Amino acid sequence: MSCSINEENPTRIIIRERDLGIARLFGLPFLGIGGYLLGMIALGLLEHITAGQVIEWLKNAAGTMVGLVIGLLFAVPGWLLVFTRWRWIIDGTRREAELQKDFLVAKTRKSVAAQDITHVEVIWEERNRHDRDRLRMAYMVKLMLKSGGHELITWCRELDEARPVAEKIAKLIGKDVVVKEFGNPEEEGNDPAGDADLA
After folding, report:
1. Nearest CA to 183 among 123, 126, 127, 139?
2. Residue 183 has pLDDT above 60, yes or no
3. What local confidence, expressed as pLDDT, does residue 127 receive?
4. 3-state SS string over 130-197?
5. Model-level pTM?
6. Domain coordinates of the chain in residue numbers?
7. Given this model, what pLDDT does residue 106 score?
8. Does residue 27 have a pLDDT over 60?
9. Quick check: helix, strand or coil at residue 64?
10. How are beta strands 117-126 and 177-181 bridged, if at all?
11. Which of 89, 91, 96, 165 is the most buried (most CB within 10 A)?
12. DSSP 8-state code for residue 51
């Protein structure tokens, strides 16, 4: 399973990503190179300001801008790989699912109300559309939206792992679970379209 589940109380669960150690290690070189380049630019500017040579520094602004862009191209992906954390909060009292992303220096939140969700779906599909290797297949747990889109909650290797996660989510927001394995839907509970009165 790609996540851990913490049941804070009977009406609230938190789904967090598992620690992606390899991905975070992969981001360290990018963060290091980007930090070094940006640090050198900052030191150069500081030296010129101290020496009263800001105009001389500005004459080389083109080269500085190139260095700044290259530094950011390394630093931003590295920062995201190393520091990004996410979690889903499924709240049965408020009847909503909230995605929180933490970038260490900033946080974003996106809420999905139960009334905007048709059902919770477990579907066997490719984790990476560009990779046809069966090892990249997994059971995706999704919130299917009335707008026609979806929100991916997590993925699991086995159906026996994915189904309990979907059932816990569905129970809190008052929706049904639909399992689609190899394209064959296996529906649990009532018709998803018929539970609008629960929203």
Report:
1. 123
2. no
3. 63
4. CCCCHHHEEEEEEEEECCCCEEEEEEECCHHHHHHHHHHHHHHHCCCEEEEECCEEEEECCCHHHCHH
5. 0.68
6. 3-17+90-183, 22-83
7. 82
8. yes
9. helix
10. parallel
11. 165
12. T
Rg (CA), the chain: 23
Q: Which of 20, 129, 34, 14 is nearest to 79 (CA)?
A: 34
Contact by Cβ (8 Å): 8, 14: yes
Cβ–Cβ < 8 Å for 16, 87: yes
Cα 25 to Cα 16, 78, 83, 192: the distances in Å are 19, 9, 11, 42
Q: How far apart are CA 61 and CA 51, in angstroms?
A: 17
Q: Is the dihedral of CA 1, 19, 4, 198 positive or negative?
A: negative
Which burial class, exposed, middle or buried, applies to 118 when counting CB atoms under 10 A from its CB (0-12, 13-18, 19+)? buried
DSSP bridge partners of 178: 121, 187
Q: Which amino acid is at 60?
A: N
CATH C-level class of 3-17+90-183 = mainly beta
57-116 tens-digit pLDDT: 777 777 788 888 999 999 999 998 888 888 999 999 999 999 998 888 788 999 999 999
Work out the pLDDT band at 191, boundaries 50, 70, 90.
very low
Contact present, 155 and 122 (Cβ < 8 Å): no
pLDDT tens-place string over residues 106-161: 889 999 999 999 999 999 887 654 444 445 678 999 999 999 999 999 988 888 88
